[in-house]
Amino acid sequence: MLQSLVDSYGGDTHRLLTDLADAIGASIAYVDRPTVEAHLERPLSDREWAATAQRFTAMAFDDHVGDAGCLRTDWIEDVLARAGVPGCGHIGQSVAASPLGGA
Q1: 6: closest CA among 23, 20, 21?
Q2: Which domain holds residue 23?
Q3: CA-based radius of gyration for the chain
């Protein structure tokens, strides 16, 4: 069933993940072969990609971002601020009240 869904997107990873994220109300970041090749500014051989892809797990990038300190929390705070929702704030910044109300 899952493979049929993936196949229905014809290799368009971005569209697949965008549709999935929209459906579940989540924000997804991903790294795939084109992303790695763009980073390297060269194509990977199939052997290089196979070795690299073995290190990718479903949540490896998310875990790395979470372990990297404040990158994830800074992004969440930015999203909250743009939405007009008060967050925890950043050091040295005041937290504004939400125009949406609430506690």
Answers
A1: 20
A2: 1-49
A3: 18
**Terminal alpha carbon distance of the chain:** 43
Please tell me the pTM assigned to this model: 0.62
Task: For residue range 67-102, list pLDDT tens digits in order.
Answer: 777 777 787 788 788 888 877 775 445 445 444 555
Q: How many residues does the chain have?
A: 103
Same domain, 5 and 29: yes
- What would the mean pLDDT of 10-18 be, rounded to a whole number? 92
Which segment of 11-15, 57-61, 82-86, 88-92 scores lowest on mean pLDDT? 88-92
Cα dihedral 83, 84, 89, 93 in deg (nearest 10): 120
